[in-house]
């Protein structure tokens, strides 16, 4: 009971508030695992320490803001660089740059054309308006919607 009375006293109340805020923010960080509240939890820790040292409330708020902003500014670029920085091409993106075989004549004016690449058949259109006959080899340049845009290998920039 004495501990509770001491915690609720006017001198310890800010410390208790910072402690609760810090625990809530660390708890939120653990639940989200997205590095969203860790900086503010560290700011609350700094404010709680300043409260334990007897600092005024405005000094505690300054510590909270300064430490939160500093840790955010210092660690955010590092986190962006090293955490989840690998992008993987989707199945569709993997065909870009691949050699395709024309199955149906590719003719933009007639809105026809299909190619096979990687065992899949795609509706195809020509990048530069060229007409390609069945059996020709073309290179996948990009994807527009569900159509594969192709070009003659000589036109493709690598």
Characterization of this structure:
- With 158 residues, the chain is an alpha+beta fold.
- It has four helices and five strands; from the N terminus they run H-H-H-H-E-E-E-E-E.
- The chain has a five-stranded mixed β-barrel with strand order 1-2-3-5-4.
- Helix 2 packs antiparallel against helix 3.
- The radius of gyration is 30 Å and the shape is rod-shaped.
- The N and C termini lie far apart (75 Å).
- The mean pLDDT is 85.
Summarize the structure in short.
The protein is of the alpha+beta class and 158 residues long.
Gross morphology is rod-shaped
Number of DSSP-assigned strands: 5
Give the C-alpha Rg: 30 Å
Strand order within the widest sheet?
1-2-3-5-4
Please give the share of residues in helix: 40-55%
> What kind of sheet is the major sheet?
5 strands, mixed, barrel
Strand content: 15-25%
The tally of helices reads: 4
State the end-to-end distance. Answer: 75 Å
Low-confidence stretches: none
Classification by helices and strands:
alpha+beta
Order of helices and strands: HHHHEEEEE
If you average the pLDDT, what whole number results? 85
């Amino acid at each position: 009971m004495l501990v509770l009375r001491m915690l609720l006293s006017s001198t310890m109340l800010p410390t208790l508030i910072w402690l609760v805020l810090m625990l809530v923010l660390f708890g939120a960080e653990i639940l989200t695992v997205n590095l969203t509240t860790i900086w503010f939890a560290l700011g609350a820790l700094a404010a709680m320490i300043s409260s334990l040292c007897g600092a005024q409330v405005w000094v505690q708020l300054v510590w909270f803001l300064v430490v939160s902003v500093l840790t955010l500014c210092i660690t955010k670029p590092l986190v962006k660089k090293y955490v989840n920085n690998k992008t993987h091409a989707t199945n569709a993106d993997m065909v870009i740059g691949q050699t395709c075989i024309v199955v149906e004549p590719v003719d933009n004016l007639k809105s026809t054309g299909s190619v096979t690449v990687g065992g899949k058949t795609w509706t195809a259109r020509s990048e530069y308006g060229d007409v390609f006959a069945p059996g020709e080899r073309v290179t996948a340049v990009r994807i527009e919607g569900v159509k594969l845009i192709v070009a003659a290998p000589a036109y493709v920039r690598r």
